[in-house]
Structures are given as structure tokens and as C-alpha cells.
Amino acid sequence: MSMTELEGLEECLADFGCSNREKAEILRCHARRDIPGMIRLLRRHRQTLLDRIHKEEAQISCLDYLVFQLEKEIQTKLRKDD
Length: 82
Description:
mainly alpha
């Protein structure tokens, strides 16, 4: 792989949000031509991203529920005041 291609790989890893440790591990696998190792590490990082998304989705759902309950409370209060 040329230096430009290696820099492209490093840039992609940064864009994927890989930590410095993850990038170093993947680049070591790349230097050894260990494609299965690279795939394993990339899949692990992908799972980390998915776990983070799922956690944040759950937080959004809780937030939406709280807002819904508060809006329902406001509507109930407004009906009582009429």
C-alpha cells in the first residue's frame, strides 16, 4: 500500500471515530496483511458505535415520554380550569 493509501486508511479510521489504540491495532494488522484481524477489529468498533446509538435511543425515548407526560398534565389542568 502506498503512503497515500495508508494515509487514506488512517483518515478513514479517524472518521469512523476509532481511538488511537484502535487505529494502532488496525494499522498493525494492516502491516502484517492480517485482513481477518482488521475485519474483527472494525466489527468490534462497529458494535461499540451501535451500542452507543442504542443507549442514546433509550435516553431519547425516556425524554420523549417525560415531555408527553408533562404535556398531558398541562392539558388536564387546562380542562379543569375551563
